Amino acid sequence: MMTYQAFPEGFLWGGATAANQCEGAYDADGRGLANVDVVPIGKDRFPIITGQKKMFDFEEGYFYPAKESIDFYGHYKEDIALFAEMGFKTYRMSIAWTRIFPKGDEAEPNEAGLQFYENVFKECRKYGIEPLVTITHFDCPMYLIEHYGGWRNRKLIDFYEHLCRALFTRFKGLVHYWLTFNEINMILHAPFMGAGLYFEEGENAEEVKYQAAHHELVASALATKIAHEVDPDNKVGCMLAAGQYYPNTCNPDDYWEALQEDRENYFFIDVQARGEYPNYAKKKFAKLGLQLEMTAEDLVLLKEHTVDFISFSYYSSRVASADSSLKETTAGNIFASLKNPYLKSSEWGWQIDPLGLRITLNTLWDRYQKPLFIVENGLGAVDTPDENGYVADDYRIDYLREHIKTMNQAINEDGVELWGYTTWGCIDLVSAGTGEMKKRYGFIYVDRDNEGNGSLKRSKKKSFAWYKKVIASNGTDLD
Ligand code: BG6
């Protein structure tokens, strides 16, 4: 057996999910409708999540996988017990905004929604699992989209503030780690899913997106401020869909292109971690003629309430080229990127690059000097269970092992400060990009298919025992 250097003491090993992809129970106990409920599986999903096609309610002839999902709402005790059996130190999950404020603009929160999350957090604590809570993971109340236009409207800052106050006060002492917006840069790529944005014809989509981004950035700073006021032990992080861009060749034009692409993503974190709009962004807005409304108070909030740590998802690196005739992009991913001929791909065409994780960790650490947290990483694959629901998912173990190795190097050889690692979809759940159940990431298999058939029975895959050993050995035993 090969042994590796241990991870730092107290390293937060765990797994991650999001409310809309696992809870189901979309109308239980007063929950309101959210954007993430009305995105169906199938060919219309992409135009809907990108704000090109309008779907504001359930329509005939579509299947909406988030409605029932894997019913974490009804199974949370069983699921958390399984996470505990694997030895999770942390569990990343998200709050469904519409359980707390069904429409989004009510004066008082919905007690049943608060109670549900209190039960979940207490269940975690029973096993010594530290909850890591994403305040919004792609969800926005439909009422706020229909009546206010989603995050394009400045009023969303107030509604979000209201949500945060309700959460921070009610869960004081139960939750210490908060993330303000999942993959905040997704607003540029999937604006309906990321920020409840639908574009009317003739609208300047770029301007709307950056205005909405500004509102989210201010809301994030405000949440950080309130979290610290309510409980000085609270730690608040931002969250980036990360993945370094490589230049396609050593042609300086390609390098320049890669730098521009990286900046498009780092822009958000530059604001959240350093507290101000970077010069390159101000120049870009001016060049594009974007008229963005920002108040002097906004800028003070951004400056004074930067995040405590930087979290990110990492699935792959990306490739950029200045040569617009190159067209061979990777399949399936919401972020279009050129194909990297040195890398293998998953069944969904996502390229696999463990070293890219070390590169991304080092780049983020060098750029911000703030603690990092990998809150998503994993392999979406087709699993074939035997009659007992057992899946021999060696391909998933291989993927995770190779990524954990480079994480280890980033910490022990490069000196990166990394607080924890939560693999994506620790229990099988609905894919955000495609709406499929078939694209599975979990250590725990859930009997449910793309059409919503199945008993919802949970069973352990081979990777379950493997990850348990990884955690128990604090990363020294990866066999
Ligand atoms: C991230 C999201 O983009 O990637 C998750 O934060 C998502 O919500 C994950 O599920 C994997 O993507 P997909 O499309 O395979 O579900």
TrEMBL record:
Record-level GO BP terms: carbohydrate catabolic process
InterPro entries documented for this protein: GH, GH_1_N_CS, Glyco_hydro_1, Glyco_hydro_1_AS
Broad EC category: hydrolase
Coiled coil start-end: none
One Gene Ontology molecular-function label: 6-phospho-beta-glucosidase activity
Keywords, sorted A to Z: Glycosidase, Hydrolase
Domain of life: Bacteria
GO CC entries: cytosol
EC number: 3.2.1.86
Residues annotated as the enzyme's active site: 376 (nucleophile)
Family indicated by similarity: Belongs to the glycosyl hydrolase 1 family.
Name assigned to this protein: 6-phospho-beta-glucosidase
Source species of the chain: Streptococcus chenjunshii
Lineage, highest ranks first: Bacteria, Bacillati, Bacillota, Bacilli, Lactobacillales
